[in-house]
Amino acid sequence: MPLAQKPVASPFGHGTQAAEVVKGIDLKGKTAIVTGASSGLGVETVRALAQSGARVIMPVRSRKQAEEVAADIKKSTGNDAIEVADMDLGDWPSARKFADDFVKRGIPLDILINNAGIMATPERRIMGNVESQFGTNHLGHMTMTCHLAPAFHSGTRVVALSSIGHRRSPIKFDDPNFEKTPYDKWEAYGQSKTANSLFAVELNRRLEPKGVFAYAVHPGGIMTNLQRDMSDAEIKAMGWIDEKTGKPREGFKTPAGGASTAVWAATSPLLASGGGVYCEDCNVAVALPADDKSFVGVRPWAIDADAAKRLWSLSEKMLGETFDL
Q1: Active-site pick, 183, 189, 215, 278
Q2: 3-state secondary structure at position 58
């Protein structure tokens, strides 16, 4: 049975750093894949897993940058089992090839963290006529994850990074690519983050009987290159920067703090009995009504089981593939 969408007795919280989460956890002999690991949260996610002894594979677009990150993590952790691979989530054949190549190696996959993403981009189309944020953040990860599934086993955990941005939009089932309505970059981002959460819900439903658990994660507010498509003026207008210090406002996390919840979902013994939940601040988030205005919790459209099934079918149609997991 999936876990209930209710907090558990976690010893961690908003200020927890990724290294604290894995203290005392032995990942030697385990293999993890982390997307988007050449910068920001991905770097600290890999560092924490490597610190506990895991072999970590980093599929990335920017190989040169990732090689530099891998070298630094090897040096800081003493773990040389860090690999870089080529993959572009905006190019589904690339995501498929990476996954298929990994499966051919015959290595059991213990942890998959779908960390990569783009945010608030100008209107762009990929793979024909697919809106880029939905196509990259959700469909690219779905392609890779489902092709990696033959490497899953009882005990594998899949973590999909969602966001507080999911509150901006449920899935626009009648117009996911903004063909009938004007493009809104924040609605598009919100839809993609709702999709990440619903993907975890449906993936967990399909695979939990086999002992494979999936979780959605809100990492918190962090200033990283995720904001690269936003101007300084726009970031300032959003209120994310303290005007007196010029630094991220109070409540924002460090990259290592932002990585903590994904690492917690991937490793915590508290989640050993099930998945299918949305997490934040190193805990299972509270489910809140659609009209709640607080900055915590998950809204109903991001954990709705029927919407998750419907999204899976829509996604298969858009990808031109059927995944019988």
Answers
A1: 189
A2: strand
Residue 92 covered by a domain: yes
Amino acid type, 116 = A
Record the tokens describing residue 160, joined without a space.
Answer: 């999909």
Structure tokens at 60: 């990335």
From the centroid of its chain, how far is CA 101?
Answer: 21
Helices within 117-184 (DSSP H only): 132-133, 141-148
Q: How many domains does the chain have?
A: 1
Reported as a pLDDT band with limits 50, 70 and 90, residue 221 is: confident
Euclidean distance between CA atoms 52 and 108, whole angstroms: 18
Higher pLDDT, 247 or 115: 115
Confirm whether 3 is domain-assigned.
no
pLDDT band at 74; cut points 50, 70, 90: very high
Rg (alpha carbons) of the chain, rounded to whole number: 18
Domain presence at residue 325: no
- Helix-strand-coil split of the chain, %, nearest 5: 40, 15, 45
Measured over the CA atoms of residue 259, residue 262, residue 265 and residue 266, the dihedral's sign is negative
Known catalytic residue at 183: no
Q: Which domain holds residue 211?
A: 18-319
* Number of C-beta neighbours around residue 68 at 10 A: 13
Confidence of residue 222 (pLDDT cuts 50, 70, 90): confident
d(CA 275, CA 159): 10
Question: How far, in Å, CA of 1 to CA of 37, rounded?
Answer: 32
What CATH number corresponds to the domain at position 148? 3.40.50.720
221 is a domain residue:
yes
